[in-house]
Write a structure and sequence with these properties.
Length: 793
């Protein structure tokens, strides 16, 4: 060491501050590259460090120096890159992460190289998850094309602002972002695109909700304004701030006039205090209240509108009461209805007392009237009455019958009004009911020389379940009216089947007449009670106007309808109605009963030509027969044609016996049956049978019946195998008794019943077959039968 110290040459000993315990020696030497190094050797006076340790310590110092230089170099390079990045993005790292906006940067290849903390928080993707990936992957598919167009525009050096994109979060949720894109250039070349964004998802949701709320509010306002319920609102001072159209219509106060006014001023003085207390309670948070009040329309008229109000406090978004909303209900009409209902109950009570009185009086009147009618009928049957006496008896009969009819109508009306009329369900034949009613009314028609007939399709099943009495009363009323208001022509009744189901049948009944007709105005009131087409009708034809009203009630009870039609005065009329009847198993029992063997119709005399055969109602002809029908043109001929066509499809029709005689003489084919319907004889003033003789007919009877019988006898002499059916009216019956000894002539009363006509045809066919098996003698000459007193019977 001493030698080494000396070799240093320029070395100096340590300074005097070292207490002489330590010294430094320096040795300069040249390293291979020409550099000079000075090596210091630490010298301790107590001893010296080994050279090896000293060398090791020297190497460690060099190594530490190299590491230090390396770290400094690395920090310098990192700082340089960081400054370059900051220059591109526009801020330092801390600023980017602390920024409240989304900031991310992409290079020209759309690769993400910056992704701040806000982006991580919103999207859920960490920086390491997105770095180096294409930015389009994290954009919603519907916005990718738009985003790529924005980036393309930025690559051309253009900044883009205020564009929206939807960023896809890690959970797949779309995040709406409002963005601005800024271009970063280096040497006039775009090196990066920095995108600043703001999350507007909640804002858009709020905006959508606000638009929805505004739309709903607008719709609610329209609903309130167009509501049929009166609605109005007030503020905390009870000033009107809502007044819908219905409220304006009801009060006659327009909305612009009512707005801002104090609502209490529209109330009556006697209710102002009570209503103000209720409103004050509602404004103070009280429960909903309902009350009834009268609100005068003071601004327009003095009428009062009755309202039922429901009052409730109107609250804001902080649940604070800011006013009242009032829903009103107009009960004015309800109050009027209640008043009218009270009056109606009084009227009904009075009407019920009236109905009871009418029913009682009708019963009391019917008893003596029935006695009068019965006693008068006995007087009519007496033969020793003079002409004057008979006229008095007939007048009594007519008047008592009218009185009894009126009493019956009043009784029926009283029963209908009191609800005491019930329908009876029984099996009956509609055809028999209608034909029976028409025949019973025929006597009145004969006095006017009217032809009355009915028609119902022969093949139509007519047995049903229902109330036959009510049906009979309706048909009788309509037929009687038709005869009453018809002076010439005909009355025709038709029955048709309208509808059929498994349990019900609906029939229509039509009554035609050629009478005086009805105006269109009068048709509207015909079925009203105590109403007639013209006031003069009561004076001319009588009646009370109750018949059609009762018919309407009965038809309604049978689930039907009724009406009238007429082309005008002088053109006839048609009255119609429909009824629904049941179809029950019991109907078959009636059909079986009516299918039994029944005798042909009996006449009022015991012997009439030949004894008619007993035939089955549902039997048919054993052979085909030829029928000749003799009848004047009109409704009767039409009905006969439809009835007789069932037995002879090639039915021959002529209008008089003279034409029939010519046809029989010229026809090559013989006829088996001739059906004759002579014209009606008008018995004016009444003709007694004892006043008639065949040789000298009564002057008021005329000659139609006498000539018809003479010609018929002549035809039968020429055609001995020809049977005849004479369709005579009730008037003919009084005089045709003088011809009761005639052979091969059967008599059927008009109006025709289908069952009687059918039995007569079947009887004629049976008798014709029996006659063909025997020797046919010529008819004896006509003998004029006389009575014991020498006068014709």
């Amino acid at each position: 060491q001493e030698r080494l110290w000396r070799m240093g040459g320029g070395g100096e000993r340590g300074e005097e501050g070292n207490n002489g315990d330590e010294d430094w020696a320096y040795v300069d030497f040249e390293v291979g590259d020409g550099q000079m190094w000075r090596l210091g050797v630490y010298h301790l006076h107590g001893g010296q460090l080994p050279v090896v340790i000293q060398l090791i310590l020297c190497d460690l110092g060099v190594l530490l120096l190299a590491v230090l230089l390396t770290v400094i170099l690395m920090h310098w390079l990192h700082a340089k890159r960081l400054l370059a990045k900051i220059s591109v993005v526009g801020g330092d790292e801390a600023f980017l992460n602390k920024a409240n906006a989304l900031i991310f940067a992409i290079n020209p290849r759309m690769k993400i190289f910056e992704w701040n903390q806000k982006c991580q928080d919103i999207s859920g993707y960490k920086k390491r998850d997105v770095k180096g990936k294409n930015a389009s992957v994290f954009i919603a598919p519907e916005h990718r094309h738009h985003f790529e167009m924005i980036i393309a525009s930025c690559m051309r050096g253009n900044d883009c602002s205020n564009f929206e994109i939807s960023l896809l979060s890690k959970r797949g949720v779309k995040i709406d972002i409002l963005c601005n894109a800024t271009v970063r250039k280096k040497a006039k070349k775009v090196v990066a695109i920095v995108i600043f964004g703001q999350d507007v998802t909640d804002f858009k949701s709020v905006k959508t909700d606000m638009n929805h709320f505004q739309k709903v509010g607008k719709e609610l306002r329209q609903i309130i304004n167009n509501a049929n319920t009166p609605i109005f609102g007030t503020d905390m001072k009870m000033n009107v701030n809502e007044w819908n159209a219905r409220m304006a219509e009801l009060t006659k106060i327009p909305a612009n006039e009512a707005m801002g006014s104090h609502f209490i001023q529209y109330l009556q003085d006697d209710v102002k205090g009570r209503i103000q207390d209720v409103f004050a309670s509602a404004l103070a948070g009280g429960e909903q209240s309902s009350l009834e009040l009268q609100m005068p329309i003071v601004s327009r008229d003095e009428d009062a509108v009755d309202l039922l109000l429901a009052v409730k406090g109107r609250r804001n978004h902080r649940n604070e009461i800011v006013g009242l909303i009032v829903f009103a209900q107009d009960v004015t009409s309800l109050r009027l209805l209640m008043l009218r209902e009270t009056e109606l109950h009084k009227v009904k009570a009075a009407n019920e007392y009236k109905s009871q009185f009418l029913a009682t009086m009708s019963h009391e009147l019917r008893t003596p009237l029935n006695v009068i009618c019965g006693m008068n009928s006995l007087l009519e049957d007496m033969d020793d009455l003079s002409v004057d006496q008979r006229q008095i008896v007939e007048q009594i009969s007519t008047s008592s019958a009218s009185m009894l009819s009126l009493v019956n109508d009043i009784l029926d009306l009283a029963k209908v009004e009191s609800g005491q009329v019930d329908l009876v369900c029984e099996s009956f034949d509609i055809r028999d009911v209608v034909e029976g009613v028409v025949r019973s009314a025929a006597s009145k028609a004969l006095q006017k020389d009217l032809e009355v007939c009915t028609f119902m399709e022969p093949s139509l099943e007519s047995i049903v379940n229902g109330d036959s009495a009510k049906l009979k009363q309706i048909v009788n009323n309509l037929v009687s009216n038709a005869i009453k208001f018809t002076d010439q022509g005909h009355v025709f009744v038709m029955v048709q089947l309208n509808e059929e189901t498994q349990r019900h049948k609906t029939y229509s009944f039509k009554v035609y007449d050629s009478g005086m007709g009805i105006s269109e105005e009068s048709q509207k009131k015909l079925f009203n009670r105590f109403s007639q087409a013209d006031a003069s009708i009561t004076r001319t034809h009588g009646g009370t106007g109750l018949g059609l009203a009762i018919c309407k009630e009965f038809v309604g009870m049978m689930n039907g309808s009724c009406g009238v039609s007429s082309e005008g005065p002088g053109k006839g009329s048609l009255f119609w109605f429909t009824c629904v009847f049941q179809i029950e198993d019991t109907v078959s029992k009636l059909i079986d009963a009516k299918s039994a063997v029944v005798p042909s119709p009996k006449l009022r005399w015991q012997k009439w030509g030949v004894e008619q055969a007993r035939v089955d109602k549902h039997s048919t002809l054993a052979r085909k027969i030829r029928i000749l029908c003799v009848c004047q043109a009109g409704t009767l001929l039409d009905c006969l044609s439809m009835y007789l066509s069932v037995y002879d499809s090639s039915l021959a029709k002529v209008y008089s016996l003279k034409e029939a005689e010519e046809l029989l003489a010229s026809s090559e084919q013989a006829f088996d049956l001739i059906v004759v319907a002579p014209p009606n004889a008008n018995l004016k003033g009444g003709v007694h049978p004892t006043d008639f003789s065949v040789t000298s007919p009564h002057p008021e009877l005329g000659v139609p019946v006498h000539e018809s019988m003479e010609m018929l006898m002549r035809i039968q002499r020429q055609h001995t195998s020809l049977y005849a059916i004479l369709l005579g009216s009730l008037a003919h019956q009084q005089f045709l008794i003088h011809y009761r000894d005639l052979q091969k002539v059967l008599f059927v009363v008009r109006p025709i019943k289908l069952s009687e006509l059918k039995n007569a045809i079947l009887s004629a066919d049976v008798l014709s077959q029996q006659h063909s098996q025997q020797h046919c003698n010529a008819l004896p000459p006509l003998k004029h039968p006389t009575s014991p007193g020498g006068r014709g019977e």
